[in-house]
Amino acid sequence: MAQLSTARGERTARIAERLRGRGVIRDFDEERTSSHLELFFDLTFVVGVSRASTALHHELVAGHVAHGIVGFIAAFFAIWWAWMSFTWFASAHESDDVTYRLLALVQMTGVLVLAAGLSRAVEHNNFSVATIGYAIMRIGLVIDWLRVARDQPTCRTRALRYASSITVLQVLWFLRLATPHSLIVPTFVVLGLAELTAPYWAERASTAPMFNPRHIDERYGLFTLIVLGETILAA
Length: 235
What we know:
The protein is mainly alpha-helical and 235 residues long. It has one domain (34-234). Helices cover 80% and strands 0% of the residues. The protein has helices spanning 2-20, 36-61, 65-93, 98-116, 118-124, 128-151, 156-176, 184-203, 213-234. Helix 2 runs parallel beside helix 9, helix 3 (65-93) runs parallel beside helix 8 (184-203) and helix 4 runs antiparallel to helix 6 (128-151). The longest helix has 29 residues, at 65-93. The radius of gyration is 20 Å and the shape is globular.
């Protein structure tokens, strides 16, 4: 009876550990390819690229060339940067436990909400829905980085820098919605540059290689195929 109780306790502990999961550090030199979860994640970006491209087409047909191009650049930056954030995190810290998968689903939901708001963003410079989608996506990403900070002391500072910078920038994106129409483009440029700078600041906290170059190379190739596919479909 005691042995049975011990076995059940160990089994319960293993299940609990599997559900809770741990933030991990992947071997940057391991042989790996895109996971099924990453490929599924890419499908949500197909929707985003498609919505942005369709909105651009409508603007060009209506004769709003400059307005459409500026709106499309802003929308595509949002899609591209969301994809980049997930891809680079997964390259270094994909753990494939239940919690990681659930957080990935949260991020996919955010991307779909972002995609739903892209037509309004391109055609009317209204980024309210897109910003909400961005926030949903980044909730999952921030929790991912906090898990790494909790479980991997060697890169805790780096992970906390990522989590804090993402949080602050997301608050600023919401504040941007209240800016006058004349400041829509300038504030987008400033915050876009801040987004690009934040990873540089975070990575200065660690000199050890974290990201798998072969994995990143494959992921960029797949994203390029997504964009080219949508271009051919639009043509």
